[in-house]
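Same chain as my last thread, 524 residues:
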Amino acid sequence: MITPRAEDCFGRDALIEEMILAANEHRSVLLFGGRQSGKTSILVRTRFLLGKKIQDEKAHLRTSVTVPVYLDLMKLPYDAGPADLFFQMFDAANSACSQLLGSRYLWRIPWPTFCKTMSFEQLVARIDGLLRKRKGLDIRLIFLFDEAKRVLGDRFPRGFQDNLFAFLYSPEIPICNNVAIVFAGAQELASFAEDDTSPIASRAARCLVPNLDRLTVKQIIGQVIGAPLSNHEDIIADRVYGAAGGHAGLSRSMISQLSKLRNEGDRADVEERVRQTKADALQRHEPLFRIWDDAFSTEARAIKNELGSKRALALKDLPALLVAHGLNNFQASRSVDELIYTSVALRHEGIISNNNELYWLHEQAHRKGFEWTDKATAVWTKIEETEKSLRDLIYRRYQREWAERTSVMIREVVGEDGWDKIQKNYEASIKKYPLSATPAESRIVDLMYIGQLLALIIFRKAWHLFNDVFKDKKSLTAMFGAIVPVRNDQAHFNSVPEKELMRCYVACDDLLVLIGRAEDIGRR
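reply #2:
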């Protein structure tokens, strides 16, 4: 998993300033951004800028400070509950204050005990004690929740959101004027924001992660590539900006690939190199585009499909378009936001138009026109996307490590009986479609069952290839444990309890998030 650096976050300082002001005013902010749009980088840079401001001030002149508290919620246990989050909030706040203010709040209750038992009241008491540690100094904490979907929606009890609301707004809570929370996420934040039963959503400010402009793309080129291709920065900036549409992760991934070109060339040579990089990016990031497709709301998908054929639409016509599809016309504005913060569309002077050439090339090749009709269908689609992404990841890592010995290693993992079954499936697939091209042996993973994919990852000789993506084998096995039974039952058309469908969907979603962070899939 790639950890972004604050110095690599370009062109976001204005957004960060807006976000901090909104947090001070509203106490809660919803930061919308598509997968790999740079949300994590923005939160990390926010932590850096606020921390630098504190360190640049002379300690004896301080009267008030804003301390950033960053939390990567993907680090919560797979089966986490409110107590796990409350503990992580306090632990992160304690560490941030210790680092920036030199005031660590020590307490006697055993640390492991509180990790699973910390109540909301205990969290408030500990944070209150932390804020009072420095007398005469007004301390304000801004919690930066990365991957906020881990704690929103149905994953935690409904009372948990009431706790967060009280934490931020209740006059009976002594710390409410000194804390704020930034929730970073994508479509799940839109659902949260429109939940009439959620008091936080009605009060929260909204910030959209914008796509990078051409100048910022050029700055990244200067930092990453530097001198070798400096004479062609403008050409490269134009081509990368057009291909990726200013999407932060795609832009940086393409630029990183171009940075391997260490010799100068004429314009035609550079153009050809960029075309090769674009073709590689289209294949490399296909799992990312599938994740975007899967996450779009039904309304956003309807508008996107219309854009695919017309390339530009008037904003004023979108409500009528949704009505024509039997959808809610009041979702037009939110749906446009979805398309913009995922970078697939651009809004300008009352028009929404295609953006991000890479995505639309993918769309042309893989257009499905798919509409979710029920929960079981949605879960099955999520399982399909998860399996494909897992196979892509495993294939890339095994090939990179063992190349032509990949099949030998797979055989060692699955054993002779398992290998014989795979070979039979392989031969059967060839005979089934005799007029089609023979599938490549290196993609033998495409003929393996999902349980075998887990075995390939946790194999003792291969785990080092994947431990940058997955936290530990136990959590990974638990996620597969929620998916495999549902996948098997649905494959045999057996009914699955709704609760198990939900567990499976959440596990798939978590896996897709982790895979989406992998270097092979692209930078965030």
